[in-house]
Write a structure and sequence with these properties.
The chain is α+β, with helices and mostly antiparallel strands. The protein has helices at 45-53, 95-105, 110-123, 139-151, 169-186, 197-203, 221-226, 231-236, 390-393; strands spanning 4-14, 20-30, 34-38, 60-65, 68-69, 80-83, 157-161, 189-194, 206-211, 214-219, 241-249, 252-255, 258-261, 271-277, 282-286, 308-317, 322-328, 333-338, 347-352, 358-361, 367-374, 378-381, 384-387, 401-406, 412-414, 422-431, 436-442, 447-452, 461-465, 472-475. It folds into three domains: 4-226, P-loop containing nucleotide triphosphate hydrolases (Rossmann fold), CATH 3.40.50; 239-361, OB fold (Dihydrolipoamide Acetyltransferase, E2P); 367-475, Nucleic acid-binding proteins (OB fold (Dihydrolipoamide Acetyltransferase, E2P), Beta Barrel), CATH 2.40.50.140. It contains nine helices and 30 strands. The strands form six sheets. Strands 6-7-8-3-9-10 form a six-stranded mixed beta sheet, with helices on both faces. It has a five-stranded antiparallel beta sheet with strand order 13-12-11-14-20.
């Protein structure tokens, strides 16, 4: 028997309209784990859950339950049960009959049904509600009934599709704790879907972060929060400062116009990277600009340990801490969290310890395309002709295939999409301290990555232009 209760091997799901909802996903779940599929709307998490349940059939790949291939089996042939977002309770049946419904279909005898219903309702703290009309119950109570109905058939895996999304914040927090207790009592495997980061961190043994049908990272809540593998994970999980940086050498990284000791190695020398620093990882203190730092520098000196200076531009009380924005002397805006209040306009200094700087590889360093050199200093790519500088074009023959690079900060976005060579929509926005990093998706489905200080909103329609001198051409490597 396999050591994994669920194995998802290279599963993809493409719908009839061509949408690739799940794209080559592999995942192994151990017996008794609480695994959460986490990501924004449309990332494929619910589709993956429905493939595991059998309500969707994978376009490719296979799904194993206890080592047996169940990819093509219908839901009733799999030892799993699913709790839906809207609970799917029968309004004409009371609580007892809703929970007992599956057992009655199996023609279990009445005494056994009563025994198992009472046991299930006790687990979900609904023992005194057997005769109640389900429509008279609160959202949290209906959710408990839905879970009782799911566990009464003693499934090996319980699948939960955003079951707390309809509840208010207080009730959702209470139900999170109850779900953890239920998981411990039952001892079965939970696979849970949510877009709520706090919920995932609270409930899970492991979190699977998804984006556009692909897994971005799998890890424990601590690993996902403290050691994100890319900027998407860092930005999606909690509050983060994500900044462009250069890995000078092992244990030394450069960002915000300063060198910082760090705890990372193996990125190479003078390599472009991203760094993430959580707001709570800054040490903050008042700074008296009239008092200079101690000197001289060197071994045994009293040189100040504070690395950055700036001014408070925003301070908001959050109950147990203050969330502040600090504009550094170098022009970087940093989010800082502390239990002390620093007033707007107050001068402060910041310290970051090496172990609190997380270095990440960049997903890409520039926009890349493939094209063909045309006449009159033009190159064709993405089915459009773009002018390039004469000096660039002279190095290639007309008709020659070329690789093309364009830096993020050399893409010009136009308010009027008709002014661009291509047009598209702002698909995602990431703030990086002193500029925004955008993903602009063209109408043909091609992504441009853009660094800009201009403020755009997600969903804005834009035109895309590139100045001739910023299009770099390279010979295609054989």
């Amino acid at each position: 028997m396999s050591q994994y209760i669920i194995e998802v091997n290279h599963v993809s799901k493409q719908f009839e309209d061509g949408t690739m909802a799940v794209n080559d996903v592999s995942l192994k779940v151990e017996k008794g784990e609480f695994v959460t599929l986490l990501g924004p709307s449309g990332c494929g998490k619910t589709t993956l859950l429905r493939c595991i349940a059998g309500f969707q059939v994978a376009s490719s790949g296979d799904i194993l339950l206890n080592g047996e291939d169940v990819t093509s089996l219908p839901p009733n042939k799999r030892s799993v049960n699913m709790v839906f977002q809207k609970y799917a309770l029968f309004p004409h049946l009371n609580v007892f009959d809703n929970v007992a419904f599956g057992l009655k279909l199996k023609k279990i005898n009445r005494n056994e049904i009563e025994k198992r219903v009472r046991k299930a309702l006790k687990i979900v703290s609904m023992s005194d509600y057997e005769e109640r009309d389900v429509e008279s119950l609160s959202g949290g109570q209906q959710q408990r009934v839905a879970i009782a109905r799911a566990i009464i058939n003693e499934p090996e895996v319980l699948l939960l599709d955003e079951p707390l999304s309809a509840l208010d914040r207080k009730m959702r927090a209470d139900m999170q704790l109850e779900l953890r207790e239920m998981h411990k009592k039952l001892g079965i495997t939970f696979i849970y879907v949510t877009h709520d980061q706090e919920e995932a961190l609270t409930l899970s043994d492991r979190i699977v972060v998804m984006k556009e049908g692909k897994i971005q990272q799998i890890g424990t809540p601590t690993e996902i929060y403290n050691e994100p593998q890319n900027s998407f994970v860092a930005d999606f999980i909690g509050e983060s400062n994500i900044l462009d940086a250069v890995m000078v050498k092992d244990w030394l990284v450069h960002f915000c116009d300063h060198d910082f000791e760090c705890a990372d190695a193996g990125f190479g020398e003078d390599q472009e990277v991203d760094v993430v620093i959580r707001p709570e990882d800054f040490y903050i203190s008042k700074w008296d600009s009239l008092t200079p730092d101690p000197s001289p520098e060197g071994e045994g000196s009293n040189k100040s340990p504070w690395q950055l200076r700036g001014e408070i531009t925003s301070c908001i009380f959050k109950g147990v801490h203050y969330e502040m924005l600090v504009l550094t002397e170098e022009g970087y805006e940093l989010a800082v969290r502390d239990y002390r209040c620093f007033e707007v306009g107050e001068k402060v200094q910041l310290l970051i310890k090496p172990e609190d700087i997380q270095v990440m590889n960049k997903e890409c360093l520039y926009n890349t395309f493939h094209g063909v050199v045309k006449e009159d200093n033009h190159v064709e790519f993405l089915d459009e002709e773009w002018e390039v500088s004469e000096r660039t074009a002279d190095r290639f023959d007309v008709g020659e295939e070329v690789d093309i690079e364009v830096d993020f900060n050399h893409i010009n976005l136009q308010d009027d999409e008709e002014d661009g060579v291509l047009c598209g929509e702002v698909h995602s926005i990431l703030y990086k301290g002193d500029h925004y990093h955008l993903t602009v998706r063209t109408d043909e489905g091609v992504d441009f990555y853009v660094d800009t200080k201009d403020i755009w909103d997600k969903g804005d329609r834009v035109g895309i232009k590139i100045a001739p001198s910023w299009i770099r051409l390279y010979k295609v490597e054989s």
